[in-house]
Amino acid sequence: QVQLVESGGGLVQAGGSLRLSCAASGRTLSSYDMGWFRQAPGKEREFVAAINWSGGSTYYADSVKGRFTISRDNAKNTGYLRMNSLQPEDTAVYYCAATPIYYCSNYGSGRESCFRYWGQGTQVIVSS
Prior knowledge:
Elements: E1 3-7, E2 10-13, E3 18-25, E4 32-39, E5 46-51, E6 58-60, E7 68-73, E8 78-83, E9 92-100, E10 117-118, E11 122-127
Parallel strand pairs: 2-11
Antiparallel strand pairs: 1-3, 3-8, 4-5, 4-9, 5-6, 7-8, 9-10, 9-11
């Protein structure tokens, strides 16, 4: 199975940018579709973005569309989430997740049950 480790979180002012990374080990990342989710204090975890195994298809939550970009580098076994124009409401713990190719056709809709493997999360705090 694949292990996932997120990095790149931190404190940023509103309007700023961050790039999160999700490093995979144990298995080649090209065997998995990937996603990013986030959980704000006192709220349920929510879908942010997803990308298919090749990087050819991407999906976004309406709340981040146009500001966030999901990408991957299978040669480096790493996924990314570029976050621009950050706002205080983007403050959350961000998790990357992976699911084997063809395991779940609905992964692009952000269904959590589609994703079998999860990282431990990285904190993003956006100050106003």
